[in-house]
Amino acid sequence: MPFVVVYDANVLYPSTLRDLLIRVAIAGLVQAKWTEQILDETFGNLAVNRPDLDPHRLARTRELMGKAVRDCLVTGYEPLIEAITLPDPGDRHVLAAAVKAHAEVVVTFNGKDFPADCLAPWGVETKHPDDFLLDQFHLDAVAVHLAVQAIASTRRQPPEDIADVLDHLESNGAVRTAAVLRR
To answer: Is the full-model pTM beyond 0.85?
Structure first.
């Protein structure tokens, strides 16, 4: 069985990165998890920062995420929040979800907000999405390549190829992953 990871809101925000992270889960490399609160943060920020995006399409994307990844939604984590100490109390819900889901990893851009000494008692660590995707590539390069190809094949407005998808990943912070996939 694949290991369990929780995707933080900030890695679900960029569309191409979100798409690849979801496709990695669909491929069975990991069991991806998130909460309604994480999705609220992701899509709330998208609605505020990107008023050009159609709210109905954002809602549809959110719905499709839940349908695409089996057993992705973590519930019942709320009682754990108060027992967790992190520098930013607003991040405690993410670690609480990871603990409840028995996740080994929280994939986040904000590793500094999840210090190792705060995570160690819970048996959780953080991974930057670039490091996480490189790990997945080393586990199954074919699956990751196929996921990138699938993303490119769905991009029609405007049409994009694999190089465009890799450019997006690079601009989304997955610089080393994009470089490895270009080889």
So the answer is: yes
